[in-house]
Amino acid sequence: MTTLLIPVSYHGQGKNAELAHITLEAILAAHPHGDVAAVVIGQPGTAAALQADLSQAGVSAIYAAEADDALLSLGVTETDVISKIAVDKACNGIVLPDSVLNREIAGRLAARLGSGIASDVVALTAPNTVTHSIFGSQLDVHATVHGPTPVVILRNGVVEVPADSEAQSEKPLVEIEEVEIPRGGTARSVRVTSMTPEETSDRPDLTTAKIVVAGGRGVCSPENFATLVEGLADELGAAVGSTRDAVDLDYCAGATQIGQTGVTIAPELYIGLGISGAIQHKAGMQNAKRIVVVNNDPEAPLFSIADLGIVGDATEVVPALLELLHDQD
Ligand SMILES: Cc1cc2nc3c(=O)[nH]c(=O)nc-3n(C[C@H](O)[C@H](O)[C@H](O)COP(=O)(O)OP(=O)(O)OC[C@H]3O[C@@H](n4cnc5c(N)ncnc54)[C@H](O)[C@@H]3O)c2cc1C
Q1: CB of 248 sitting under 6 A from ligand 1
Q2: pLDDT at 186
Q3: Which residues in the chain are classed under CATH 3.40.50.620?
Q4: Considering the domain 3-178 in this protein, what is its CATH number?
Q5: For a pocket test of ligand 1, which of 280, 310, 313 has the largest count of ligand atoms closer than 8 A to its C-beta?
Q6: Domain limits, CATH 3.40.50.1220, in the chain
Q7: How far apart are CA 241 and CA 252, in angstroms?
Q8: Which of these ranges, 95-104, 183-192, 258-267, 319-328, has the smallest mean pLDDT?
């Protein structure tokens, strides 16, 4: 029987851990091709907190590698654990939900296991056959990933998780199998010595939000970003996104960056304010179902994929829009 291994992404730690939506996407993408085994790496209690949701999502095995320092080596421990399970359990492939850390781990896994790797995968047609997006999402190509344990990084937002999944009949709990974290062997020359907790907000999660309001260099200042981009997002119950330039200029936090080196989104509605539409940004948002663009340059490339384009100054258009929305309240 074919088994695909999924390293689980989650928010929070220990008993407060919650399954990330991207893990559900990876499980759904892998399911048609065999059994799905999940591996949870983190602080003690994490796997137990995720057990019910993973069972409900249909995994057939849950491996837990837990220790207080499990996540303090920037991917080395994860690589040790995942590659050992892949070999010991004779897994036929590894599907990682996309994240900055998982890209690092995926590269290490492919090297360790002597297998090929495919990133930006938008469809899995067999454990070793994928469609993946290349050249900043300009082309989709079919590829076969060679080697004993093909490593695949699934792009976020490409698998629709049915809303009624919660209404499905309750599945029995899958037992947790503890696995030892290999100590020694790989030199641990990098240790994380402190961490800044992720900033939390009441806004929806950027990767799964139905509406995203994104701002670029054209909003002109951090103050404008707060009033125009975040203000409109809050009015619409939307998540906040940005371009890399906006992040580099300190208009907003790095976690809001959409694009090739940021997050990939596929919301119902994307509103881009003062964003030119570089291919690296489009790579992360062009799957939005509706795209609205506000830019004072009618030649801005983002207009070419817009459903509604407004040629105008964002500092005038957005306050007018906010006023209209307030009048409707
Ligand atoms: C390897 C690599 C990876 C990258 N990864 C990413 C990525 O993941 N995400 C990303 O976003 N970028 C990425 N970039 C950067 C990318 O190439 C662009 O530089 C960036 O997306 C541009 O951001 P921007 O649209 O905010 O700025 P600009 O390109 O400077 O555009 C600003 C726009 O605002 C408009 N404007 C100005 N004033 C106003 C106003 N008052 N009202 C309305 N409109 C106004 C201008 O007409 C212009 O079109 C990457 C680049 C490289 C080389």
Answers
A1: no
A2: 56
A3: 3-178
A4: 3.40.50.620
A5: 280
A6: 211-328
A7: 9
A8: 183-192
- For the Cβ of 227 lying below 6 angstroms from any atom of ligand 1, the answer is no
Nearest ligand 1 atom to alpha carbon 300: 49
What is 211-328's CATH topology? Answer: Rossmann fold (3.40.50)
- Cα(281) to centroid(ligand 1), Å: 7
Residue closest to 228 by CA, chosen among 292, 272, 268, 264: 272
Q: Tens digits of per-residue pLDDT, 4-57?
A: 999 999 999 999 999 999 999 999 999 999 999 999 999 999 999 999 999 999
Cβ of 218 below 6 Å from ligand 1: yes
The whole-model pTM stands at: 0.82
